[in-house]
Each structure stands twice: as structure tokens, then as C-alpha cells.
Design goal:
Length: 284
């Protein structure tokens, strides 16, 4: 067996890591380049602010943009408080016993469940059993359940990363456990919690299966007026114009994909800026 010198072994390992990074980044860059190249010509003020017409072959995608934002923002507003509270309980209050370990394992396993299963669950529970109908709130609740494991897992990891000495110092001053969590642990874990929010937003923004059963419509000629309205959504709209409408202009398809991509990147950038801001305020 050939033994490499430490210096040569380090260079070889560095080369392998660089190749792995390149193999990961290059396909993403190529996909983004193709979408931008073919979709830029379709982007205009009319495309972003008007209703579809001519059987989706003309006009704009405003209802799909508004519908996507409504569903995603509602889902995040529902999930973030519940997920963070669950993570605080599991990390700060729950005892390390068999039941707690089973719950944590179940949360991790739920993160790997296919999105179509969540869609069928949302159809059965929210649309049919609770009689919410195909609506924004039904889609948001379905997406919130799908993103809940990611929020809980990342928030729990962020809380665990806060040094235990911080808790001891606070408790030694006579502060209660809840005050310690609220004023010491949570502010220092906030950047990591926002990371979980970024991951969940990136995942649910492009999901088609869950909203296909619970929220999305082929065409809605008006903007939503209440959470019980059915809406168009960019992922489903992109699927329809790509597969169900013949002779669809290529630039419209790629333009819709570009808008969806930019929407996800914009929401992620906002969350990243907020995370950097709170990380700078952290004292360790």
C-alpha cells in the first residue's frame, strides 16, 4: 500500500474537496444561466402586473405571484412560532428519556417524507375534514406541517450551540429559567433559527404537490380577497404552462421560472441580512 507524505496527502484532499465543490456548483450555475438567458426577454412590467390572457399564452402572472407570496408567508407565520416553541421545550425543558428520543427521531424522519404525502394529508384533513376547501389557509397549513421538522431541527441545534455557561451565569443571579431562555439563550440562538427559516422558505416556495391538492387553481381571474380563496401559484402555474398548454412560447415558460427563482432568492436574501444583523449583536 502506497503511503503519501502529509504534505502531498493534504494537497490531494484539498483537490478532492475542490472538485466536489465544483461538481456541486457548476450544474446550479448552468441551470440559472439557462433560465436567465431564455427568460429575460419575457420580463416586463406588464408580465409582472397583469392577468393571464389568450389561454395563458399572453398577459402576465400577477395572480400567481400574489398567490405564491400569500401561501408562503402564511405558512412561515404559522410554522415559525410553533417550531421555535417546540424546539425550546425539547432543548430546555424536556428530559432525556425514551419518549423524548422517539419524538426527536420522528421529527427527523418527517423531514424526509415526500411532499406529495403532505399534499394528500392536507387534502384529507384541511380541505375535506375541516372543510376549509381548496384555499390559501389550507395550502399554508399543509406547507407549515411540511416545513415544521426543518424549523424544529435547526432551531434546536441553534439553542444547543449556546454555551451552557451562559445559562449557569444567568441562573446563578436568581433569574428564572424562562427569563434565561428569553433574554440570554434565545437572542444568541436567533441567527441559527433564521437559518432554519431560510431553509424552510427555500423548500416550500417551489413545492407543487402540496398546493396542487390544497390551494392552487389552473386559472383565477382575480386576486385573493381572503384566506379562504383559491389562488394561482407560480410552481403549479409553471407546471401547467410547461406540460398542459400546446405551443406555449418558450420565453414565457422560462420567464415564469425566472420570477419564481428571483422570488426565492429575494426572500432568502432578506432572511440572510436579518441573520447577519442579529449575529453581529451576539456577544460570543
Amino acid at each position: 500500500m502506497i503511503k503519501l507524505s502529509p504534505k502531498l496527502s493534504q494537497k490531494f484532499s484539498y483537490l478532492l474537496l475542490c472538485m466536489a465543490a465544483i461538481l456541486t456548483i457548476v450544474p446550479v450555475v448552468v441551470i440559472i444561466f439557462i433560465i436567465i438567458k431564455n427568460g429575460t426577454s419575457a420580463i416586463s412590467w406588464e408580465f409582472l402586473t397583469s392577468m393571464p390572457k389568450d389561454g395563458m399564452r399572453g398577459g402576465g402572472i400577477l395572480p400567481a405571484i400574489v398567490g405564491t407570496l400569500s401561501i408562503v408567508l402564511c405558512a412561515v407565520l404559522i410554522t415559525l412560532p410553533i417550531g421555535v416553541c417546540a424546539a425550546i421545550y425539547l432543548n430546555e425543558y424536556a428530559k432525556d428519556n425514551l419518549l423524548t428520543r422517539i419524538v426527536k427521531l420522528a421529527i427527523v424522519n418527517l423531514a424526509g417524507v415526500p411532499s406529495v404525502v403532505y399534499g394528500l394529508f392536507g387534502l384529507g384533513v384541511f380541505v375535506m375534514f375541516l372543510k376549509l376547501g381548496v384555499s390559501i389557509i389550507a395550502g399554508a397549513l399543509t406547507l407549515s406541517i411540511m416545513e415544521l421538522p426543518v424549523i424544529i431541527t435547526t432551531a434546536q441545534g441553534a439553542l444547543s450551540s449556546v454555551p451552557y455557561s451562559f445559562r449557569e451565569a444567568s441562573l446563578s443571579l436568581g433569574v428564572s429559567r424562562w427569563q434565561t431562555i428569553r433574554h440570554v439563550v434565545f437572542p444568541n440562538a436567533l441567527p441559527g433559527i433564521l437559518t432554519g427559516a431560510i431553509l424552510s422558505i427555500a423548500r416550500i416556495s417551489g413545492e407543487t404537490a402540496p398546493i396542487l391538492f390544497t390551494a392552487a387553481a389552473f386559472y383565477v381571474p382575480h386576486l385573493p380577497h381572503s384566506p379562504l380563496d383559491q389562488v394561482m401559484a407560480l410552481p403549479y402555474h409553471l407546471f401547467i404552462i410547461s406540460t398542459q398548454i400546446p405551443n406555449m412560447p418558450k420565453n414565457i415558460i422560462y420567464g415564469t421560472a425566472l420570477v419564481l427563482l428571483m422570488m426565492v432568492l429575494t426572500m432568502s436574501c432578506i432572511a440572510i441580512v436579518a441573520r447577519i444583523y442579529f449575529r453581529k449583536r451576539r456577544k460570543w
